[in-house]
Every structure is written in structure tokens, then in C-alpha cells.
Write a structure and sequence with these properties.
Elements: H1 2-26, H2 31-38, H3 42-51, H4 57-67, H5 99-113, H6 119-125, H7 129-136, H8 145-155, H9 159-162
Helix pairs in contact: 1-3, 1-8, 5-8, 6-8
Length: about 170
Amino acid sequence: MWQDFEYEFNQTLLVFGQNIRKAHKQKQVSLHTLAETIHYDRGCLTKLEQKGQNIEYQTSIKLAKALNVSYPALFSRNFMESKSNLETDFNEPFCDDDYLFVFIKNFQRSMRKRNASQVQVYINTAVSESAVSRVIHGDNKNPTLKTLYAMSFTSHCDMHHLFSRNAKEEAL
């Protein structure tokens, strides 16, 4: 299970990085300008775009805000490609929201639906139970994307659904 988690996590980081790349190219914002805007190392942004890199939640929020793109959509393989009125518009601008709070509530709902506990996050992903507990209880306002992905992986929900206020019940 742990190897599946590592593979899927790396794929999610690649999708996130590719979506950052698509957004800054479409908006004609150079990587150098983007890095300066969010006070982040340009080399780390390059690595994020090309190979995926584990970053902190607050950095990912800064990226979405600087690029004025939907935060949940950055985790979707369909970013900037969805045209259906039935799906989330992946071209929505950034909306200032407490995405971590939304994520936690959706995670808890999904875990209750599955009769699962947060201990399973550690068992399935080797991310410490205390790291997950600190996120759930609001003691860590800036977890890494790996910790959040571990929660997503265990709840069997896509990250873009967990970050979305209007996540459909069946998606959770």
C-alpha cells in the first residue's frame, strides 16, 4: 500500500506542477516574476513544474492566488480543459477561502462515510498519526502537500474534491 501511495503522491505533484506551468504560461507570467511575487526560489519552482516537489500548503495557496486560478482545480488532471457546465469550471479565478478548513471537513465526512479512522492514514502512507492529528485539530496551519495527500489517499478522494466547498457527496 505504501508504494502505491508514493507513486500516486508523485503523480499528484506532477499534475500540480504541470498545472502551475499551464497557468503561468497562459497568463504570460514568467517563472522569475512568479517566484518573486510569492517570495519563493525560482529553482524550486522549476523543480515543482518539471519533476514535482513537496511544498507547503501556504506556498501552494500563494501560487494559486498569484496566478489567479482556482485552488482546488490545480490538483485536477482536467485543469483548464473542462468546458462542461456540469463540472467545475477549471478556469475560475482564485477565490480567497479557508481551503484547509474545507479540506479537513470533507476529509472527516469521507472517513466517517467509510467507517475509517485517522490511524489508517499512518498505516497506509507512513505519514505520522501526530502530523495528521495536528492538521485535523487546527494545530498545523501549514502542512506539506504530502501530509494532505496522505489524508486524501486514505479517504479515497481526489484532492481537488477535498478542497472544494461544493464537493459532491458521492465524490467523497
